Amino acid sequence: MKLNLGTLADLPDGVRGPSYDRADLSAGIVHIGLGNFHRAHQAWYLHRLMDLGLAHDWAILGAGVRPADSAQRERLLAQDCLTTLIELDPSGKSAEVTGSMIGFIPIAADNAPLIAHMTEPAIRIVALTVTEGGYYQSSAGSFDADHPDVQHDVSNPATPMTAFGAIVAALGKRRAADVGPFTCQSCDNLQGNGEILHQAIVGLATLIDPDLAQWIDRNVTFPNAMVDCIVPATGPAELALALEFGVEDAAPVTHENFRQWVIEDNFCAGRPDWDKAGATFTNDVHAFETMKLRQLNAGHQIIATPGEMLSVDTIAGTMAHPLIQGLFRKILTEEIVPHVAAVPGMTPLDYVDLIERRFANREIRDTTRRVAFDGSSRHAGFLHPIIRDALAHDTPLDGLALIEALWARMCYGTREDGGEIAPNDPFWDSLATAAQAAKDTPQVWIDQRKFYGDLGQNARFADSFKGWLDLIWRDGTEVALQDYLKS
């Protein structure tokens, strides 16, 4: 069955469909960045809320700001923006079709269609999943006003190239038309993601129109949130899996049998009652996101980096590798848990057990390559803050230093078996150059201030890093892991 509105009433047996009529929905949200994660997570929560007869005026309009987003737009519009979600539970797979997205805004270099839609009064939330590295942050965590994309938008505010420039332009038009602000909602894996989005929007607006920046600062809200669900990339296997359920979907999404969304209740123009579909509203998002980012997201880098070096293709495969599984357990319990507080219903040690089970789910074919992608953002965002805490509190950090040494070795571009590691980072060229120099002079790697700030100048961290990188180059990854596990 080819998926579209015309066939929605005839879904195969066992495939759950929407209980609501798509004709009854109207848009209230523009979401920029229509990747798999959004469709398995935020869009699913809204879909389930609509199933309850609620939030029918909060449907999603998809959007993108890159030329490559046009292909995704064509795929989704061809099936009326319906998505088949396939849950990969070790006890059995299940599928459902979601319909909370009702359109996809045309992609244009000047972002005029996106700006026009965000200016409409009915749009009350503009949400984003643009990846951790998409917020134009400097190595110090501030807004990078010198980035060429930012400078383009400052010089061309009516025809911006970034999502943030488009948002600033739309908010300017809304202020002029006196239709009120919308909430800007980050759904990316960043600690204080709402604060970081606020920094980007107000920072850019200040360079364009200081009066508008003040209006945004006073009137627009930027709720922090923690998001969590493991969602692999879609490839031939996922397309085939949808067909096994009897659905021909050009862009199906597979996901684990776990979701979590913890949201600060700070919406200037209203919001859906996502909590009625299982989300959590709280004034203490920080504790939840610290647990998740420092344990799950950091844990992903802890296993994916040696996994790449040892030619282990999948995340589940890394958890079946005794040395990598032992590395994960030791670093998490001894070096990360001491810097994480409990949250209601979950201790840090219980969370280690939870994510270990999730990572080991063999039904999830999540590749080490996908998880290791954009290490320049993910190491800096997930691991380096823990290293800084360990230095400040004089707690163990040798395992964390080992992961940084393995990352340096990985960026050299070859595995232990001699296989090539293809470029896998927006800064791959500079990382590869540093990795080549670090083979003989390890300090070169941690002197990359763009990623490490002043960490490379800390003798305790630097000495540990140098020792591990020398050992890895001399005796290999497995010996280094064995030495750490003996310590």
From TrEMBL:
<feature type="domain" description="Mannitol dehydrogenase C-terminal">
    <location>
        <begin position="284"/>
        <end position="469"/>
    </location>
</feature>
<dbReference type="InterPro" id="IPR013118">
    <property type="entry name" value="Mannitol_DH_C"/>
</dbReference>
<dbReference type="InterPro" id="IPR036291">
    <property type="entry name" value="NAD(P)-bd_dom_sf"/>
</dbReference>
<dbReference type="InterPro" id="IPR013131">
    <property type="entry name" value="Mannitol_DH_N"/>
</dbReference>
<dbReference type="Pfam" id="PF01232">
    <property type="entry name" value="Mannitol_dh"/>
</dbReference>
<feature type="domain" description="Mannitol dehydrogenase N-terminal">
    <location>
        <begin position="28"/>
        <end position="276"/>
    </location>
</feature>
<dbReference type="InterPro" id="IPR008927">
    <property type="entry name" value="6-PGluconate_DH-like_C_sf"/>
</dbReference>
<protein>
    <submittedName>
        <fullName>Mannitol 2-dehydrogenase MtlK</fullName>
        <ecNumber>1.1.1.67</ecNumber>
    </submittedName>
</protein>
<dbReference type="GO" id="GO:0050086">
    <property type="term" value="F:mannitol 2-dehydrogenase activity"/>
</dbReference>
<dbReference type="Pfam" id="PF08125">
    <property type="entry name" value="Mannitol_dh_C"/>
</dbReference>
<keyword id="KW-0560">Oxidoreductase</keyword>
<dbReference type="InterPro" id="IPR000669">
    <property type="entry name" value="Mannitol_DH"/>
</dbReference>
<dbReference type="InterPro" id="IPR050988">
    <property type="entry name" value="Mannitol_DH/Oxidoreductase"/>
</dbReference>
<dbReference type="InterPro" id="IPR013328">
    <property type="entry name" value="6PGD_dom2"/>
</dbReference>
